[in-house]
Every structure is written in structure tokens, then in C-alpha cells.
Amino acid sequence: TGFITLDTGYKNTGSTKSAVTFLDGEEGILKYRGYAIEELAEKSSFLEVAYLLIYGDLPKQAELDKFQNDISMHTLIHEDMKKFFDGYPSKSHPMAQLISLVCSLSTFYPECLKSHQTPEEKDLTIIKLMAKMTTLVAFIYKKSLGHPLIYPKNKYDYVTNYLWMTFGQRTEDYEVNPVVVSAMNKLLILHADHEQNCSASTVRMVGSSDCNLYASISAGIAALWGPLHGGANQAVIEMLELIKEDGGDTEKWINKAKDKNDPFRMMGFGHRVYKNFDPRAKIIKKACDDILENLGIDDPVLEIAKKLEEAALTDQYFIDRKLYPNVDFYSGIIYRALGFPSEMFTVLFALGRLPGWIAQWKEMHENKEPINRPRQIYVGHKDREFVPISSRG
Ligand code: CMC
């Protein structure tokens, strides 16, 4: 079978050619379809960026209106899906629920199972997922509180509608706070894609067997859940809380992170590709200051996070290994200021990453990529003689 190159963790192996996202880890550059992340985060809306990622170009106004309108037509989920929520234990992790709910969409919309969907059919499958994701994520949260579900209001744009279903009261005059809408747009944009990371590669891997979009994305959500990937945002806030309760001695925790006999890692630090800084973290750190000030919130963990960052960036261990704060380091502080509990943080990451996953899945199909099937170097037993169970000593 020829020569096999071993690259565990795919540290230096390209799995595909992609025109979606450009990432330069040395220079700290991130671009979606050629547009700098800094500019998109400042000037764009999440839905506009979703369109850009999925269809390749920024939408004209009429295209964006149609995209929004098509999505609004599909925000309801099948009423039978609500029964799932009653089945999950009330304190079960939102990510576990999201994984199964997204996969379950393929039972309600079986047209997604059709191999070789026409572009129109594929588009409808995508629109339904974009639409129903917000409703599922909002319902998961409402159920976790034991509160009544709030149904989508289609007069709202994508992000406002999501926030309405999450925080909306059933009074006639309740308005979603525009500061929160703008913060949420920014966060979702910053999370929208990140080239061939663990979850995107998973979506492509699963999709390469011609598995339907909903199941492929569900697999991506599972990959995201781990604390080394998207689950880090929940782990960061829990770590910061722990440090606060422990008296705020950042030096002690830095030493713990450096200790090779201690499994503790500084959560929200380090990245496989970024070796100078994570451009998303830079934007989020600044946004964190602005948003907390705007909302009049003083969160003591923000000070701890800044102290930790400062101490780590001057520590030889972190310098030698090029460890910098990543996207997850400050995002949780903002989510918390917006009113989300920490168990929801990774779900919010998934909501933001959805268009990226869809774009990766769509590109893989359009490029007619072959089934992904890595090889291995076998290191197990060679030839063994079978011994009947009665004779095994
Ligand atoms: N705290 C302490 N030491 C660290 C950390 C950390 N957060 N990250 C890496 N190191 C050390 C690691 O122990 C190793 O040291 P040595 O060379 O002495 O053995 C060296 O740095 C290289 O680390 P690695 O684990 O080989 O690097 P990797 O590219 O495989 O892992 C990472 C990247 C992001 C998984 C890792 O840095 C990490 O676990 N960070 C904490 C979790 C985290 O914040 N994840 C979010 C990543 S960004 C958003 C996303 O992708 O979802």
C-alpha cells in the first residue's frame, strides 16, 4: 500500500483546498472569503457574514432581505420536537441536547437524506437549519429554566429574534436591548468560521460519506463540545471563578499550568495555528470592556482575566511555547454580562459557527471531494494463534 506519512493531530497535513477562510497563524490574520475579520466584526451583521460564508460573496440588499425572509419562514420547529425537551433530565448539558436535536432534524425533514440534492433542495435544507438552530438553542435555554417557551417573532432580524426567544418577556412593550443585539452580532461573527479546525474537519469528514447536512453538523457540534475546542469558553469562566474564590492569586495558577505533573491547563490560552496572537481575542477583549461599560456591569473576573493574561505573557513558559489568549478567553465574560449561564457558552459558539460548518460542507460537495479515509501505521500484534477460552491461562 506504499509509504504512509504519520502526522498525528494533523499538525502539518492539509486535508482539502478551500476558498472559505484564510488564516495566517504567524501574522495573526483571519479573513472570511477575503474580508478581514476586524472589518466584518465592526461593520457587518451576523446574517450578512453567514451569507458571505455560505454563498461566497457579500449579499446585495435584496439578497440579504430574501435570505432573512426565507429563514423567517422556517423558524418554527415541529411541535413534536418539543417532546424531546421533556425527555432530557432538566439539568442535562445543553450541548448534549443540541447534538441530538440537530441530528433529529433529519427525521422531520427527510428530504435532506436524498443523495444528490438539486441546488434548490440543498439551499432549502440549509435555510431550515439556519432558521431552526436559533429556535432550538433558545428552547434549550428556556427549558433549563423551566420557563415557558417563547416562539419566534418573524418581524425581527435573525439575531434579535434569537435574543427575543431567549430573553423576551410576554409583555407587549418588551424590546430587545440594541446593545445586546450588537454585542451578539459581533461575537457570532467572530466565531463564524475558522478553516479546518476540529469541528469543521469533522463536518467535512462525516459529510464526505454523503451523510446528510443535519447529521454532519451534529457531528461537528459534538467535536466542538470538548474543552480543548469550543468547550474551552465554559471552562475559562469556571477557571476564573475558581481563581477568584481562591483569593485571586494568579501567580499560583500560572505555576499550576506550568507544572507538568499537574493536568491543569490555562484554559483559553494557546492555539494550534496562532503563534503570535489570536486576532479574534484582540477584538473580543476590547469589546468586553466596551460592552460591560455600556451595560453598567462590573465583573470582578474581568480584572482576574486581565491580570492572568499580563502575568502569562511575561512568563518564560508561555513565551517559549507561544501561548496567547485565544477566542475563548474573554468571550465568556461577555456572554455572562449578556445574561447567559456558563453551560450555554459552547452552544452560543455552535450558533456562531453554524454558517462556517455549512459553508465547509457545501464546498466539499461542490468540489466533489472523495470520502475521507486516513491511513495508519499499524503497531499491534503481528500473527497470533487463537486459543479456545477454556485454555486461556
Ligand atoms: N496551558 C498550559 N500549557 C499549555 C497550554 C495551556 N493552555 N496549551 C499548550 N500548552 C503547552 C503544552 O503542555 C505543550 O508543552 P510542552 O511542549 O512542554 O509539552 C506545549 O504548550 C504545546 O501544546 P500542545 O498541546 O502540543 O499544542 P496543541 O497545538 O496540540 O494544542 C490547544 C492547542 C488549543 C489544544 C492547547 O493550547 C490547549 O489545550 N489550550 C487550552 C484549551 C483552549 O483554550 N482551547 C481553545 C482553543 S481556541 C478555540 C477553539 O479552537 O475552539
Gyration radius over CA:
22 Å
- Give the CA-CA distance, first to last residue: 37 Å
How are the strands ordered across the major sheet? 1-2-3
What is the total tally of β strands? 3
Question: How many strands, which pairing sense, and closed or not: the largest β-sheet?
Answer: 3 strands, antiparallel
Task: Give the proportion of residues in helices.
Answer: 40-55%
| Low-pLDDT residue intervals, each spanning 5 or more residues | none
Q: What's the number of helices?
A: 17
Bound molecules: carboxymethyl coenzyme *A
Which outline best applies?
A: globular
Mean pLDDT: 95
Helix and strand composition category:
mainly alpha
Keywords, separated by commas or semicolons:
citrate synthase activity, 393 residues, binds carboxymethyl coenzyme *A, acyltransferase, transferase, globular, mainly alpha, 3% strand, three-stranded antiparallel β-sheet
Characterization of this structure:
It is built from 17 helices and 3 strands. Helix 3 crosses helix 6, helix 8 (178-190) crosses helix 17 and helix 9 crosses helix 17. By secondary structure, it is mainly α. The protein has a 3-stranded antiparallel beta sheet with strand order 1-2-3. It is globular. Helices cover 55% and strands 3% of the residues. Carboxymethyl coenzyme *A is lined by residues 9, 197, 228-230, 232, 257, 265-272, 321, 323, 326-328. Carboxymethyl coenzyme *A binds at residues 9, 197, 228-230, 232, 257, 265-272, 321, 323, 326-328.
